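Structure representation.

___
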Amino acid sequence: IKAYRQGIRVEPSATGPRANLAELLQRELDARMQEIATAQRINDAARVQKLMRGTEEKFREIEQLRKEELTNFARDAGYAPDNAMVQYRYGLALYRNDQLDDAVNVLRKLHELEPRTPIYMIALSRLLQTTGQYEEALKIAEKLLEIEPQHQGFVEELKEQIKKQGAEQDPTPRIDSSEG
């Protein structure tokens, strides 16, 4: 963590240190949140209170780092529109900053650049699922199976999640009692 903070001070326009620092801080925060949940389950209010100190500040720092890094990722993506890894990282940065429509657009372009790269296909499929674009998500996931059949579990999981989403939305037609 110290090294990433130093890297940001030394070279503020470098892409990477903020994203990496944000990821490390997120892992720490996730671990702390698990400890809080455990303390809540055993009704240890004093421990919960102690663990809660600083969590909001850490969350805000993570959010700020991601926003600052997004500018660097956008710059790099503009410089290297045909570099798949740069575009992938930019798409993930957009996703982490809750810019889902933009993230989908970047990952779609990435899929055009490299239509047979499994990690990119999985990322796009998951993101499409998140944004409710189930048919396209499933189509990409099924193409993935043609390339790497070992991803059958991913496709089955996706189909199950889509089925659950459909059940939650309850597309069953309603019969109005005033009808015939």
User: Anything to note?
Assistant: Confidence is low (pLDDT under 50) at residues 170-180. The chain is about 75% helix and 0% strand. The two ends are 70 Å apart (CA to CA). The CA atoms of residues 118 and 148 lie 8 Å apart.
